[in-house]
Amino acid sequence: MKNRIIEIKDFYAPELDVYARLTEAQLLNKDRPQDGMFIAESPKVIGRALDAGYEPISFLVEQRQMEGEAKPILDRCPDIPVYTAEFDVLTQLTGYKLTRGMLCAMRRKPLPEVRDICRGAGRVAVLENVMNPTNVGAIIRSAAALNMDAVLLTPGCSNPLYRRAARVSMGTVFQIPWTFLEEKETGIWPDEGMKYLKELGFRTASMALHDESVDIDDRRLREAEKLAVILGTEGEGLCDGTIALSDYTVKIPMAHGVDSLNVAAASAVTFWELGRKTAGQE
């Protein structure tokens, strides 16, 4: 069956509501998570979501891309509605110029349990209250590329399937396992959540500037069979309780009087150094 192609000429057409007028909170739909959606941007990100088994609901494609970069994706989904419009209509969408001519509304999946995605994992990243979706996306991209096995997020973090987070991650949110540290499974973070990680066999390493910090190349970190690397929110960093409960507090040595790195930049350095054991590069 050919794609159902529907041309949109008016930015306020109801078919564009999911793309243009629903907030991230409305798409997430916490009251009815089974109806939750997200918007994937660009053919690469959409393709990786499809590869991971996410179900498309509809596409929004710039007309000139119908036979361009969008075509291979559309060919994979012949029964899904395709809304198409000229560039001047679509540029009224926030951030549209960054999408490479294609958006897709997709259904969310139920989140896996922490225990399930940590089974067999040697290195996991834990994000504590990282609220900027750009940073969440960048950290997940680094985690996927630099030998982390999974990403865990406290409830105060931005959702990895928010549009900006998924876009910045270049679709790696669909390539590395991730989930939230939900209270019903892991207890309240950090007291019960940290205990839960240790019950799963992880040593915990908090990234923080602290008087008792060890350098990131400390051999005990490299030699830990299972290590959870914890990174904190922008600006304030990790809460004192998390640091106090950690097996190690870890710092990245700085030069030229610089006191710290952005959390996304720090994550890349950290994952490279602490993930090398997983890659067998010692």
TrEMBL record:
Keywords: Methyltransferase, Transferase. Residues 124-271 form the tRNA/rRNA methyltransferase SpoU type domain. The keyword Ribonucleoprotein does not apply. InterPro entries: Alpha/beta_knot_MTases, Ribosomal_eL30-like_sf, rRNA_Methyltransferase, SpoU_MeTrfase, tRNA_m1G_MTases_N. It comes from the Bacteria. One of its GO terms (molecular function) is RNA binding. GO terms for biological process: methylation; RNA processing. Gene3D superfamilies: 3.30.1330.30, 3.40.1280.10. CDD domains: SpoU-like_rRNA-MTase (cd18095). PANTHER family: RRNA METHYLASE, RRNA METHYLTRANSFERASE 3. This is RNA methyltransferase. It comes from Candidatus Mediterraneibacter stercorigallinarum.
